[in-house]
Amino acid sequence: MANSNSVDMDPDVARRLFEEGATLVLLGVPQGTELGIDCKSWQVGPRFKGVKMIPPGLHFLHYCAANLPSCGGEIGPKTGLFLTLKPKDILLASWDPKEEDLDFSASQNEEEVSRIRATLQDLDPHLGPYPYEVMRKWVSLTDRLSEEVANNLQPLSGRICAFSDVIPELQLTHTKDRAEQPRNDTACQSMKEGLDKLPRMKPREGTELRFSVIPEKKYPAGATPAEITQCSLDQSYALEAVLEKNHELQPLNLLGELQFAFVCFLIGNVYEGFEHWKSLLALLCRSEEAMRKRKELYLGLIGVLYHQLGEISPDFFVDIVSQSNFLTSTLQDFFQFASGPGVDGTLRKRAEKFKAHLTKKFRWDFDADLDDCAPVVVELPEGVTMD
């Protein structure tokens, strides 16, 4: 690792981490691989054999395989996994060149782990210290995320991949089956026609993230038109359905799921994580009745968002087509509901402070009239349709 010995750490903390910290022994990782833990990454050097002095708790290990210079030297897509480490833990993995992945099966071999523990002093010069300077940031981004929640959301394969491993929904093993599919060697007259010609894909079993499913219909079966309208304005029914199905015993674990999705996006480069974060946030911010009923959930939400929004440029949230900021409109609903009748006084004051903080830091206007934002009419080139 480059500059791995330049970490400025309090001597008492360093000694405690040296004695109690966990160790990741990662053997055979090719030079040039981009590897990181939590909020920091490095390029692996020729002497690298792992990471030491890791604080006990939940961590996110991530890496990108590097092609040989003769093959262009590009960095591959990112792979990551959540790990929970105990004091003095030793986790052992070897690089699998065929899969371009870490194989942790050696960690199940107690004899091998004992051998590594006995030779840890010899390995020490090859182990980079945990980047202690990012520990505070990491904890602030994951303080609501437990090992149980992370394990329940992580793919069954144990790997979180920036690019989904997908396969065709239809396995066309016979020539007859393939002949019945739409031909794709002729010009398309519309976007829909082009999309219809593409094979439908699905994630390979065991590789998909297991996020809570947010119901498309945000109202109960048999609802009247008036009830449907009400449930669209106040999405508490849908939020309660998500909590009941996924986090009934620990409703605050929904904040852990929000943090899991954000980390998958921010560090793991998983776009699906960002989409789920947006959907979950919109559901929480537009649930007026739940805000009156679940004070602790919403106090926690403000804390989670405070740290998350400090990690992304405010320009990121602006749609390049409409120039609208989805986050300001979502939070506008949140602040409006938080100032309404029946909301706990502590929550109302915390929301007001958070609104003032965001207005000052990002110059976002939460008091603008959204109805003034007329839809943008886009002229399509002649002959192109969107049917």
How would you describe the overall organization of this protein?
With 387 residues, the protein is of the alpha+beta class. It has 15 helices and 12 strands. The longest helix has 18 residues. Strand 7 and strand 8 form a beta hairpin. The radius of gyration is 25 Å and the shape is globular. The protein folds into 3 domains: 132 residues, Substrate Binding Domain Of DNAk, Chain A, domain 1; 38 residues, no CATH class; 146 residues, Serine Threonine Protein Phosphatase 5, Tetratricopeptide repeat (Alpha Horseshoe), CATH 1.25.40. The strands form 3 sheets. Strands 8-7-1-4-9 form a 5-stranded mixed β-sheet. Strands 3-2-5-6-10 form a 5-stranded antiparallel β-sheet. InterPro entries: AAR2, AAR2_C, AAR2_C_sf, Aar2_N, AAR2_N_sf.
Q: Helices and strands, in N-to-C order?
A: HEEEEEEEEHHEHHEEHHEHHHHHHHH
Distance between the termini: 53 Å
> Total strand count, please?
12
Q: Which fold name fills CATH's third level, the topology of the largest domain? A: Serine Threonine Protein Phosphatase 5, Tetratricopeptide repeat
- Main-sheet strand order equals 8-7-1-4-9
Percent range of helical residues: 25-40%
CATH-derived architecture of the largest domain: Alpha Horseshoe
- How many DSSP helices? 15
Poorly predicted ranges: 2-6, 373-380
CATH class category name of the largest domain: Mainly Alpha
Q: How would a crystallographer describe the biggest sheet?
A: 5 strands, mixed
Beta percentage is 15-25%
Shape verdict: globular
The CATH superfamily of the largest domain appears as Aar2, C-terminal domain-like
Mean pLDDT: 86
Rg estimate, integer Å: 25 Å
- Counting helices, strands and paired strands, the structural category is alpha+beta
Count of separate structural domains: 3
